[in-house]
Amino acid sequence: MAQSTGSNKIKTAVFISGAGSNLKSLIRFSKNKISPISVDLIISNDRKSKGLGFGKIFKIKRKIFNFKIKKDAEKKILFELKKNKIDLICLAGFMKILSKNFIKNFKGKILNIHPSLLPKYKGLKTHERAIQNKEKYSGCTVHFVNSRLDSGKIILQKKVKINKNDSPEKLAKRILAQEHKLYPKAILKISNL
Predict the structure, then answer these.
(1) How far is it, in rounded angstroms, from Cα 118 to Cα 157?
(2) Among residues 14, 56, 59, which one has the least CA distance to residue 39?
(3) Rounded to 5 degrees, what angle do the CA atoms 30, 36, 41 make?
(4) Which domains does the chain carry?
(5) Phi, psi angles (nearest 5°) of residue 62
(6) pTM summary value
(7) In the prediction, which pLDDT does 192 show?
(8) In angstroms, rounded to a whole number, what is the distance separating the alpha carbons of residues 4 and 38?
(9) Among 148, 147, 149, 129, which Cα is nearest to 138's?
(10) pLDDT tens across 92-142, in order?
(11) Catalytic positions, written as ranges
(12) Which of 2, 71, 171, 180 has the maximum number of C-beta atoms within 10 A of its C-beta?
């Protein structure tokens, strides 16, 4: 993956919809000497997204786009990404599905983190489904984004044991802690390609 000129770090945009805890861990990671990325832009589809607060704290440009008309939103986002010379997109709890056309513009440069061991439990309610099906393990996956939901090439996975008395909330909390470690590791892995 091409390093951006200037600060020799890959200019990265993080897309969020909610609390932004993965965003926070990516920002922390980006400040590390070994990190190949700099977080230059935060994009959200929800102005109430708590994660936008991290943009304020860390002085990172934030942009909010209304997805009522998806095509328009994506056009504006692509313009913003090009303007900011973004080379990598990290989806971190972004609850909108990007179009084929959008993905084509950033082919092989969009990552996502998903709270299950893909290809199992694509989509939503992953923890409930894993517990209901009496799985022994769940976990998280970082993968490249392609035009099919949660189906891109897997970069890294981390297994998390499901305990007998686990609720979806308890399991989610333990998996989230692993997500924060896995995302940076996956970025390091692909940046060496």
Answers:
(1) 8
(2) 14
(3) 50
(4) 10-191 (3.40.50.170)
(5) -120, 140
(6) 0.95
(7) 77
(8) 10
(9) 129
(10) 999 999 999 999 999 999 999 999 999 999 999 999 999 999 999 999 999
(11) 114
(12) 171
